[in-house]
User: Fold this.
Amino acid sequence: MARPTTADAGPGGYAILVRLRNNGVYVALALLVLFNLFFTTNFATAGTILGLLSQATFVLLVALGLTLVIGTGGIDLSVGAIMAIASAVVPLYLGYSWPVAVIVALIFCVLAGMLNGFLVAYVGMQPIVATLALFVGGRGFAQVLVNGQLQTISDPGFLALWRATVFGVPMPVVVAAVAALLVGLLARQTTFGRYVLAVGGNRTASYLSGHPVRVVLLAVYAISGLLAGLAGILATARLAAGDPATIGLLIELDAIAAVVIGGTPLSGGRMNVGGTVAGAILMLVISATFVMNNINPIYAQILKAAIIVLAVYIQQGRRGS
Amino acid sequence: MATGTTVERDTLRRERIFGAIQRRGALAVLVAIVVVAGLTLDLFLTPRNIEDVLLHASFVGLISVGMTFVIITGGIDLSVGSLVALGGVLAGLSVGISWPLGLLFPTLACGLYGFLNGLLIAKAKLPAFIVTLAGLLGIRGLALVLSGTLTIPIPGPPAFVWFGRGEIFGLDVPIVVMFGAFAVGALVLNRSRYGEAVFAVGGSEEAARLAGVRVDRVKIIAYTTSGALAGLAGALVAAWLSAGQPTVGQAWELYAIASVVLGGTLLTGGAGTMLGSLVGVLLFYTIQNVINQVGTLTSYTQQLVTGIFLIVVVAAQTYLTRQRTY
Assistant:
């Protein structure tokens, strides 16, 4: 488990540099928000900020699950497809009442995640290939379920999942905040969180220390599926339609980027849940900055790419060679 | 390894047999599918259909050649799908000046980007997954910016369009280019010092370095090749479509990776074959073609079956060659 030590920091001003490096995502987010407060009209309104946070929930929920997966040294490319599965299942079961539909959809998504976990933990496939299969097949499965049709939804109880507010805060923001808190606690305060880091640090050593490696991996991918399912349900409620053809398309890329920018290395053995939250919001604020200033958002995509590389480079420090 | 106990020899023999299955598992499956499909589907073995499969496989096939090099060094290149789009757009922008430029410019520009990938990965020691993921996002953006998000029509000249739609000895040009690339790739991988270095780097970077292999250079060349081939594939797609489309090539990097893995190349690096990748690509597209021919299946059912198929083949390979994992 590589973690920064005081020895890394060295004397004097360098310590500040190290601190900056480890918290770069917060600094970047703060700077960008400051910039917007001054230069973007209508940014500093509660409506805009809550709206932005609502938009960020999809990437955020998915990225939280990915933080755990990446903590074990794995990767989950199937999260977008799992969102599509949730989006396809919900309309099928809305006839029974919306909580049933939500629960059934989440069960489907957990099962999909467990399929990933099974392939990685028990069959021994490499995570990128195991989840690539679901990336290709999962969206197909979702569309088979609804025969490739878009299913409009009018159930007010279900639509409230996106539209309702709690003390003025939109429901999706509440859901995402609770999820972030729970994943943060899971990662930092529980034995399970320790196991995740141990497996990511060295799977064999973890096994030899008596950790339930396979169960941990299975659980991590199941949680990733669950959170992706939650994101899919929220996206469905926002659209007021089950649309497995487009919901969650290519979200895995933004989510992986958010996790990595947040300071969780792809090599596993380390997690930074707070960083993931900031990373997900940062990804969205970058896009929003361009859109709100009437600049073509395609440029935001290019800037995001540069920021990803820069962030990893800074985190890398001078460890190489 | 020259002498050994009986146990060691048995282990070696087992490894050799399993290794052979792993390397040729995809080929066996491909042959089985071709035989079964040929017997049951009327149109499957017609020349037109075979050429159709090959043509669709040719673009991802071209990418897979570069991907094989990259994966054997232990890396990965996620940027190639977007580079195909960029290549097509650049072809559309430059072909008007003179038609050879329509092929050369995309290849060189995308090769240059691959070189940049290689620099960041080999010299700055950044993880390949992240560097090329950034490329996936950014290069797609660049392709959209350069084209103004529009399709760039390529009405001619005929000399350029020939590279997408012309024929050599009755075979579509992209197919010939793909087979040519695989042949050259196989020669380089198996018969050159560079090929040997690629395996060495993928097997153990440290050992390779200590043995005097110039690890950084080996990696940079691999990524440059991968980028250049993606650019060339983009130009060929543009010639085939008579248009540079900034939206083509989405998820192609994943299809290429899947093909390479199907062909028995390990994502951990250090092992793999060029022929395997060719078989992997052909397998991938033959499956899609068969699913198409069965007729009643929709495109999304096709995706579902492809996904299931991927799981089965890779699970079988993993199971056969599994080393002890916990």
The beta strands of chain A are 151-152, 165-166, 169-170, 241-242. Chain A touches chain B through 56 residues (CB under 8 Å). The first strand of chain A starts at residue 151 and ends at 152. The two ends of chain A are 19 Å apart (CA to CA).
